[in-house]
Amino acid sequence: MRSQKNIHMIATNRAVAMIAVAEALAHGIGVVFQRIRDRRGVRPLIGMDDCALKDMGISRADVDRELSKPILWR
């Protein structure tokens, strides 16, 4: 038979584990949304000509490379 102390310890460990999982999920969701926002920032560069991109110090290849990366790229 489990003692009251053991039951309390098991419940506490489960609660801590559930909090850790929730924090990890929240972080993962935040990362995905940040990547989506970053990608939106690159999209306007598609319509720029090569001269305008060069003035900003980037090339068409840089834009294409950024857009070809998966959303969860690190």
Task: Provide a compact summary of the structure.
Helices cover 73% and strands 0% of the residues.
Key terms for this structure?
74 residues, 0% strand, 73% helix, single chain, mainly alpha, rod-shaped
Question: Describe it for me?
Answer:
It is a single chain. The chain is mainly alpha-helical. The protein has helices at 4-42, 50-55, 60-68. The chain is rod-shaped, with a radius of gyration of 23 Å. The model has no long low-confidence stretch (mean pLDDT 85).
Number of strands: 0
Q: What is the CA-atom radius of gyration, in angstroms?
A: 23 Å
H and E order: HHH
- Look at the helices and sheets and give the structural class: mainly alpha
Strand residues, percent: under 5%
Shape: rod-shaped
End-to-end separation in angstroms reads 49 Å
| Mean model confidence by pLDDT | 85
Q: What does the main sheet amount to?
A: none
Instruction: Provide the helix percentage.
Output: over 70%
Low-pLDDT ranges: none
User: Total helix count?
Assistant: 3
List the helices and strands and how they pair.
Layout: H1 4-42, H2 50-55, H3 60-68
